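Entry 14. Ran structure prediction on the chain below.
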Amino acid sequence: MSLKGNLEFALQIKKFRNVDLFEPGFYHIKFIIYQDTNKKLFARPYTTHERVPKDLESKYMKPIIRPCILSSSSTYVTKTFSISLTDEEVIFNESCYFKSEFNAFPKFENNDYYLEAELMFLDFNSFASLQDIDEKRIAAFKKIDSYRGVIKRPELGIHEHVPIFFEFRDSCVLELIFHSAILSLRTTGTEVVPQPDQKGDQKENVLFLQTAKLKSLWNKKTITLEMLDDFYIQCINPMKQSYNHLLEFYASMLRMYMQESNEYATLQFLEGLPSKSEIMEYLIQGGTKESNKGRITFFQSSEEYKTSDQNLPKKISEILNFKNPELVLFAIAQEMLTLNSNTFHTWRSLNEVMLEIPKLVIWNLEKNYNQILKNCFQEKLVQKIYRTSDLTLSFEENVGETHNQIALSKRANMSTKQRDLISVIDTNLFQNKDLQPIIFEEISVKENLNGFHNNDLIFSNIERNCMKNVYDGIHLIVLCHGFQGSSFDLRLLKNTINFLYPDTLLLCASSNEEETEGEISKMGIRLASEVKCYIDEWIKDQNLGRLSFIGHSLGGLIIRAALPYLELYSNKMHMYMSFSTAHLGYFSHSSKLVDVGMWLMSKWKGSKCLRELSLTDAPNLEDTYLFKLSKKKGLNWFKHIVLLSSYQDHYAPFQSARIQLTKKGFPVPEKLAVYEQMAVNILSELSADCIYRIDANFSIQETTLDSIVGRTAHIQFLESHYLIKMLVWRYTNFFS
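Output, structure tokens:
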């Protein structure tokens, strides 16, 4: 005889958003859930439900093929839908339920599960040529992208918003709500679950039978109180936690449902629930009942339990104050049956309510997920705040080398604690912590900022000032590529911003494609013209609320060159962000290969741009284009200045990208005064209260020519999913 646990999962699919899919056609998503121990053990999908949302009937797209289950592969297939346009949204309201069995005793299995999703595609013409048989149509679809998530501790109960990103080739996101719960614990053999309306004598018969079955788990050994305490901690506690999470989520959801609907509509979901009185108490108290949002410690032995937190529940024998093991066993059997019944009925009721789920619930789940994600990103962030009267000077010598050493130490001692705050972890984003960049955020605050002297007060004041800048109209963000780049380069950043802030308008500038060998001033003129034309065409009948710019490498300089021609919008300028831009030019490098490469390209291809970047376009440094550009207006219009750099990036000198000089160890000391003057020219007239300098330390595993010359880090600013998502999630006010 053994004890089995029935673990159930629910996927509530809410919507699919095509951020940047290239190919029009038909799509659906396939899901599997499994344990990956020695071999894959699949959870079995057993039913699907769908219902047209009442408030979204006009937007609801009828399925081309209805959602279904492929039993042979334990796969759930969503409805098939068509995509014809970029930034198209498809409303779902369907769900699928999976079952999985695990061993609960003598050893409680708490293995991680995995959620895999595949984005499937078939073009319109191929679909039309197929026979009108759903199975054959589904088989004809081809996988174009995939997602893999780790489900952490599903037996403790999960109720979480999960965005599934497909970004390998295209860019789209499927938003779902993920649930898990232990539905029952049962001894091997037929389990009898008492119904709430059963008569007392029937319940007693079931209870005595359950007690006998539990007793047989120890194979006729003499059962001690310590053995029962261990059993309770190991098996009953996880199910209690799972049920408590389920009950709290269900009650809080009903309370929000009551706010959007009416009391009668809410109370109908409580009929027949064993936990009706508990939920009613929660609703009457206005949701003030304290909720345990953390994970309760899981114990494998009574010895481990004894040394645990004193606030955790006592041993079951002490709670009951029974000395007779038979009485304790009887009480455990009674509680197990009650948990089985209550969980079963609450879970079934939850599934029904989820099809009527109000917008407020979805909004709260998304908000909670976004906050948790920010906390996860915080783990890789080192923040420093400085008060200064000179924004151009560094507060430390050898900042880049210091950051390198801190990053090495931080990676060696990295904890998984923050990542486990998310129950369903995107492996592409979080799984390999050693490959994630370490971010150093340095905020240089003007000395006269409201007279604060404490770093925490300074930072909270900055945040408060950011949030009070309410504006009307559209926020347009212009993204500008670098040397020999294209408008496609910043696509990952554009799509990430588009996903989180769908009301923000984004322009990936293309006017300088194949034109970056020329003069930077002319590139600026072309960019300014493109921005003006875009505003006239797309925002002419509306109100432009904010105008922001993000440039990679040379793109940051092209933007600065364009600003004097955009003075008409000076009062709209919101945020300027540069990714590894050589604002002070390419003074002597630590990489001689880069020096030689730049010299050869400027001579061989006659690149005026590279001559301007190396400040060799005029005999006098004061007559070079970059020096003249440093004196032009534009940056002083922005409320936020953000400068990203990397000490590993030799394509853009570290100090030049930060517009921040250190006198000690400057590579060309005889020219330091000129570079200092350029930095002063750029920063002295800023209206922003502070400057954000963000240094990204990348984990570069392979030694290649690109990594040796520093190009790998330069390109990582465009390709690092972790860095891009950290920026967009953390700095809300920059992008919203």
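Residues 400 and 647 are 5 Å apart (CA to CA). Will compare against last week's run tomorrow.
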